[in-house]
Task: inverse folding
């Protein structure tokens, strides 16, 4: 079941500095949520997996547990959700017409008793033309996939740039490292935001017109916030994410070469802004949102 040697997984975890860890997950949580039980946990500890001991129990950092579960393809919530992602890429490769309706539903940003919810949409979301109703609590984003968007692959001149992404490994990072390209250079670890920053920077260095994008990676039953890079080709922006596709192959979610890393992914993503943006705000507090997504094959005119 293990996708790679345990020592390699632990070595990557240890590349994240200790100051970013918060040891608040006990052994029962490791087993129940992340599916890391004995004897796997014992093997990890023998290899130097970070932990604290207190009161006869051992405690771990949540991100460390999440990264182990992902690397070892354990049935954690994150890995189970990611197994849904390939359908969007397959629909593009097969040119199958599909519609995704993303229902954005907000919850109060504060749990304080008596807090009056005051939902508001930021300007970039309003610019999408959404109809959120008088409370701004719920609205729908729509994307048609397959037989729409910009088809095709990256031009040959871009492919060496994409190949540079192969040396990086996906890692769920502390927030403080999201934009730290020096950390990426030192460790070869990146999340989607850090990888998009690198690809954007290298594209500009090589003379391409490029931009970073934040929005949604479309998937059913839930879409996910995501970052990727875009390049201007023949007068139009085209979305690419070789890092994500390579990562999905490493996790066994996509088979090798099932989706080319050079695939244009315009209709697999929904661009909202360049930087992270809270889709709904509650009186200037970020509101928690769910992204329930319905998937419907299209026939005829849809």
Result:
């Amino acid at each position: 079941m293990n996708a790679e040697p345990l020592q390699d997984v632990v070595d990557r975890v240890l590349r994240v500095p200790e100051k970013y860890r918060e040891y608040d997950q006990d052994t029962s949580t490791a087993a129940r949520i992340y599916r890391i039980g004995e004897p796997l946990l014992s093997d990890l500890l023998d290899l130097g997996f970070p932990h604290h001991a207190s009161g006869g129990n051992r405690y771990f950092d949540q991100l460390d547990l999440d990264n182990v579960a992902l690397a070892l393809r354990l049935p954690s919530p994150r890995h189970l959700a990611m197994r849904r992602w390939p359908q969007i890429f397959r629909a593009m490769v097969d040119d199958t017409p599909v519609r995704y309706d993303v229902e954005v539903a907000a919850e109060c940003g504060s749990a304080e008793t008596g807090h009056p919810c005051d939902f508001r949409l930021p300007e970039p979301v309003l610019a999408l033309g959404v109809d959120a109703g008088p409370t701004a609590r719920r609205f729908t984003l729509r994307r048609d996939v397959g037989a729409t968007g910009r088809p095709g692959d990256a031009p040959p001149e871009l492919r060496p740039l994409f190949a540079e992404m192969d040396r990086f490994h996906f890692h769920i990072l502390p927030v403080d490292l999201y934009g730290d390209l020096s950390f990426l250079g030192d460790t070869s670890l990146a999340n989607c935001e850090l990888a998009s920053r690198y690809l954007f920077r290298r594209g500009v260095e090589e003379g391409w017109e490029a931009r970073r994008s934040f929005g949604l990676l479309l998937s059913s039953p839930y879409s996910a916030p995501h970052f990727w890079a875009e390049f201007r080709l023949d007068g139009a922006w085209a979305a690419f994410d070789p890092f994500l596709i390579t990562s999905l192959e490493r996790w066994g979610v996509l088979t090798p070469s099932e989706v080319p890393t050079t695939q244009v992914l315009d209709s697999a993503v929904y661009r909202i802004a360049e930087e992270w943006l809270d889709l709904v705000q509650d009186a200037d507090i970020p509101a928690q949102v769910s992204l329930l997504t319905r998937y419907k094959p299209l026939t005829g005119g849809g």
